[in-house]
Design a protein that fits this description.
Length: 448
Amino acid sequence: MSLNQDWLARSRAAVWHPCTQMKRHETLPLIPIASAEGMYLTDFDDNRYLDGVSSWWVNLFGHGHPVIKDAIKAQLDTLEHVMLAGFTHRPVVELSERLARLSGLGHAFYGSDGASATEIALKMSFHYWQNVGEPGKLRFVSLEGSYHGETVGALAVTDVPLFSDTYAPLLKTGLRVPSPDARLAEEGETAADVARRAASSLENLLKKHHGEIAALIVEPLVQGAAGMVMYDPLYLTLARELCDRYRVHLIADEIAVGFGRTGTLFACEQAGIKPDFLCLSKGITGGFLPLSCVLSTDAVYAAFYDDDVTRGFLHSHSYTGNALACAAALAVLDLFERDDVLSANLVKAERFDAILQPVAAHPAVRQFRHVGMIWAFDVATERGDFAQAFFAGMLSRGGLLRPIGKTVYLMPPYIIDETQMQQLADAIRAELDRLAGGQGGTASPALP
Ligand SMILES: *Cc1c(COP(=O)(O)O)cnc(C)c1O
């Protein structure tokens, strides 16, 4: 037995893996990772995989980045954790101040995972309306194809049937409005036209039901789990106007798109808007430690600030504001400043877009799209097992890409270089030739 096989057998016996039908691992092997550095994951048999999806969208600057590692180590020698009710500490104060400066929203409330940020924002919005004397506002609106996490509250505003249908009887399912998905553009329509159309559906709903609606929750610019669905920023601008007009909160779930993924630090900036609640997680610690955060407006905060205890937001998690995680997040913000990451990414993204043009031109590729440091395309194939087969094929070529259905996407750590991007592009083309037919099966260069 190789070391890999040993670890995967033990893992299958002891670990219940997330988002997985465990029986599939009878045939589809798990990849036991021994170590990771920079762009690469290394398994126990010394195979290396170029991480093209930032380990589920969390990693920003590569694995084991020394600046983040050192910040965590230094924090570890000082204070690892203290409860945040009744106590505070340097990293949580500094992080909250810096996030407020960067987002224009303050009053940072912390959780550990993205889904808990969603829960916090939903509860805060509902509780706000209670506190201001509008107890009838208790429903939430989300977009078709939305994804906001897997806990019971977050699933209620998630529209991915594979994840939510089973639990439907448990969920207080919210209202749905059409997605501004730019792919829905009809002949002669622009992405902005689709955004206007979707906004007018939203307007119809709000006009009728605003008295019972607490908030609209959106994934700004990119609906990740739906398959990197991209849309025009105009939708966010219009949604902000409508939410203001009908007194409905706007919750921006930037758990996936925050921290530069769409080209700006926060995606909402591209629409020139500020939400009432901003949910952050994933990249916030550079992919090192679990941390999430909900930022909100002074108006929201003021509605909870009172002599009456029950008007306060009595929500908590044991690890709220964990000092190690906050130290990692501070290091991430340092890196953005020190390396002027957003400007550097603009230049990189343009180069990578050029490198990926031969992929875009592949006969099986549809709807090639790109924003910031995210690329995606749909594949014309009859294969029901496309996602698995592509994933496995890429692994054998030394690349980690995990399609969502028939959508292939790249969301690499920002340290990826042109050679590595070229290797991914070549491997993608070879896999498309293998799985979706193509132009004469080019020889497939293996990735390092
Ligand atoms: C990943 C994700 C979540 C959930 O975050 P977890 O940390 O997995 O709970 C919520 N919203 C969006 C947009 C996400 O991509």
